[in-house]
Amino acid sequence: MKLSFPARAALFGFTVLTLAFLYLPLLVVARLSFNPAKSVSWPGWTGYTTEWWKLAWEAEGPREALLNSCKVAFVAMLIAMVLGTLAAMAMARFQFFGKHAVSFLLVLPIALPGIVTGIALQNTFTREFDLGFMSFKVGLGFHSLVIAHATFCVVVAYNNVVARLRRSSPNLLEASADLGAHGTQTFRYITFPLMRSALVAGGILAFALSFDEIVVTTFTAGSGFETLPVWIYANFSRPNNVPLVNVMATFVMIVSIPLAWLAQRLSEGGDG
Amino acid sequence: MGERLEHAPLLTEVDLTDGRASEPSRPLRGVNRAFHGRRGLGVVTTLGLPLSWMLFVYVGSLLLLVVSAFYVLDPVTQKPGSDFTLDNIVAAFNVFDPAVRDTIWVLVRTVGVALLVTFLCFLIALPVAFFIAKVAPRWVRRGLMVAMLMPLWAGYLVKGYAWRAMVAPSGGKFAASGKGDGGFLDATFGWTPGYGRAAIVITLVYFWLPYMVLPIYAGLERMSPSLLDAAGDLGAKPFRTFRSVILPLLMPAIAAGSIFTFSLTLGDYIVPQMVNNGKEKFMFGTLINSTLGAPNQPLAAAYTLWPLLIVILYLLAMKRAGAFENL
Fold first, then answer.
1. How far apart are CA B61 and CA A122, in angstroms?
2. CA–CA min distance B254, chain A (Å)
3. Is B233's Cβ below 8 Å from some Cβ in A?
4. Homologous superfamily of A60-268 in CATH?
5. Which of A52, B26, B254, B266 is 20 to 30 Å from B128 by CA-CA measure?
């Protein structure tokens, strides 16, 4: 299809505008974190202070929330990597009954609205289960948050690993077997090295997803446990805390965007 | 989710344990011996753990939620008690009740917003994806796509907050005193939608746009250029080619993207809180959340059945449109 030059130029201009639309709000927040005034009013490009960054560094609340977020995201990431890899190996290597249902099931936690997932998990975690010989309640806190986050992070790890396994040639596995390697050797020398970078990419994205999550978190964290998004959510409408929210929001962007970019690079490579 | 860019055909399944491989030269021991020739065992050990996690934790919770909508709220424990009732379902679904009619009005409005956001995302995503996939030089394509996707990871609240700062009206609670003291839009262009419905729609479009660009880009990337050339050779002008060739072929990809734009909008209640005026229950998520504040878990459970039903119906419709091959 031959497009005229004005048509191509218009498409180019529209794409540039869209990119500006995507990045401008992020730049605005970053700028505001250096804003001397305590408001979200646009200060223009003059007048800078690093006072809020120092203040945020010393403040107790945001630092603890940040640490909590990292802990939850790290454990949820580990669980998601294990479960996602296992599921990916099963889906890429075997044919079995109900395979489509399994892939549907894995996507469900991110396809359903967060509020449904959140209420459903909260309902389960706060309920007393009577098994006859014992009864137990999961309760809310760090552990319930990890369970909830791991559940919707599995799909990210799974997606990355399964795509890599599907792209890698089955000849490699056959060659390995022909050379006399048994199952564990093939896994150790062929399958695992093949999927390693995809697994790391999936892990990073799972970490980012958990780190960022707010809806399911508010329902499953309980009142005593605050993650960074929960802290921002609780403070964005308090005029006094606007500068700190600006700083923390900017901090999240500075950390997560390069990580996502790294994950992107890792999942591109290693086609074997 | 970058892996979705690739849509390699499903390679033939390889099963190392079915005896096609040559017999090992040394006798197998331990794990390898136990698994040799037992494919079912392989499926169970790999899939067993993730599947039971998803079934017990997730599907179990969803079922329990549906069930708990049928029970009375225990006034002592504030949890679903043991008495069966249809009251919650009636309270959430009885369309003849004026109070429920209000609820349904909010629901219709929310579905309307979700459809509008989906449509706007589509309108923006299509030319952008087309430019990246078919017009831009090959070497910048990946870079442009990465640039499109990165804001997805900037943090949900961060982005919601960013729009709060963008659209802040002048003279607001958070504004410095003086003239032209609004957020970025007000200060730079002298115009801002302010907090309210328009801001909600803009912010939601901003949030979910990359989810629409990605599948449409992948769909265009897969589309053979010879199809477009053939349409041109048959005398079709670019617009005709677009309408009769590109758009029909893109339908599954658009359906796949719309799953996220539609479903994520439907359940959102944070954005309305960040960029809306006052306490208006504009979106259905806000309504559910306020029922929880009561707190009446069984009633909230009954209310969540609405979005659950709508999203599942939507997913099934999109499955028919071939969306799942494009996820």
1. 9
2. 15
3. no
4. MetI-like (1.10.3720.10)
5. B266
Q: Does B162 sit within 8 Å of A29, measured CB to CB?
A: yes
Set of chain B residues whose Cβ sits within 8 Å of the Cβ of A191: none
Taking an 8 Å cut-off on Cβ atoms, the answer to whether B13 and A2 are in contact is no
Contact B165 A263 (CB under 8 A): no
Q: Is the pLDDT of residue B326 over 80?
A: no
**How many distinct helices (H) and strands (E) make up chain B?**
15, 2
pLDDT confidence of residue B14? 45
* Domains of chain B, residue spans: 2-52, 92-326
Query: Could you report the per-residue pLDDT of A146-188, keeping only the tens digit for each?
Result: 999 999 999 989 988 988 888 888 888 888 888 888 878 888 8
What are the C-alpha distances in Å from A225 to residues A65, A72, A242, B225, B323? 8, 11, 22, 54, 38
- Cα–Cα distance measured from residue B77 to residue B295, given in angstroms and rounded to the nearest whole number: 11
Q: A78-128 pLDDT, tens per residue?
A: 999 999 999 998 888 888 888 888 888 888 888 888 888 988 898 889 887
Cα–Cα distance between A104 and A107 in angstroms, integer?
5
* Mean pLDDT along residues B264-271: 84
Of residues A106, A170, A232, nearest to B54 (C-beta):
A106
What is the assigned CATH class of domain B92-326? mainly alpha
Domain range list for chain A:
60-268
How far apart (Å, rounded) are the C-alpha atoms in residues B217 and B223?
10
Q: pLDDT tens-digit profile of B147-166?
A: 998 888 888 888 988 998 88
Q: Which residues 171-230 of B have a C-beta within 8 angstroms of A?
A: 173-176, 181-184, 186-188, 206, 209-210, 228-229
Cross-chain residue pair B188–A42, CB shorter than 8 Å: yes
Contact B71, B81 (CB under 8 A): yes
What percent of chain A has pLDDT above 70? 98
Query: How close B318 comes to chain A (CA, Å)?
Result: 12
Quick check: A86 and B44 in contact, CB under 8 A?
no
pLDDT category of residue B40 using cuts at 50, 70 and 90: confident
